[in-house]
Every structure is written in C-alpha cells, then in structure tokens.
Amino acid sequence: MVFHVVNPKLRDELADQLCEAVLSLQNLEEWYQFFEDVCTIGEMRALAQRLEVARMLDAGHTYDEIVARTGASTATISRVKRCLHYGADGYKLVLERLKTKRGERDR
Fold first, then answer.
1. Which of 37, 68, 80, 107 is deepest in the core (most CB within 10 A)?
2. Residue 88 to residues 3, 38, 105, Cα–Cα distance (Å)
3. Domain ranges in the chain?
C-alpha cells in the first residue's frame, strides 16, 4: 500500500489533536456525541453527503443519479470526483474499508 504524505497546510498541532480525538472514539454512539458537539447539523450532513457522492461515483453512477439521490450540487460532485482521482486517497481508503465491512456483515 502506498501512503500519502499529509498536506503540510492541513497538519498542525490542533489538527493532530482533532485526529487523536476522533481516533479515541470507540463506537457510533460516541461518534455522534462528539460530532454533535463539534459540528453543526449542516456540517455533519455535508460530510455524509460527500461520502455518499464518493461511494456513488466509485460505483459508476451518473451525475444525474447522484443529484437525485443526494441532492448534492454538480460542483460538489465534481470536487469529490477530483479528490477520488487526484486527491490524498482518503475516500478510496474509507470506501474499501466500508465495502469490506459490509461484505463481512452480509455473510
């Protein structure tokens, strides 16, 4: 596996602290507790929407299908698509892990 070097514009002591905080969460309930305090409902929904856009793009869905399912703008879809192809591979990493987890759950 190839590891991406973190963008130095993103990484600092406060961002590291946030990442450590997220990594300390042990289940969905704790995730919701933390993110309800940290994010607005709109921010949480935007993050969830982007992940679904990435999942649908990865699965080969068209922009029209993605707009209909998620309500995302074509600008958001284009940005997510650019990240999927030229980004830090964060979406790819998470999507592969979600596929694996779903596969295990479906057995």
1. 80
2. 9, 24, 28
3. 8-38, 41-106
Q: Three-class SS of residue 1?
A: coil
pLDDT tens-digit profile of 69-94? 999 999 999 999 999 999 999 999 99
CATH architecture of the domain covering 41-106? Orthogonal Bundle (1.10)
pLDDT class of 104 with cuts at 50, 70, 90 = low
CA distance 97 to 94: 5
CB 74 within 8 A of CB 67: yes
User: Please, which residues have CB within 8 angstroms of residue 67's CB and are 6 or more apart in sequence?
Assistant: 73, 74, 77
CA dihedral 13, 14, 17, 23 (to 10 degrees): -110
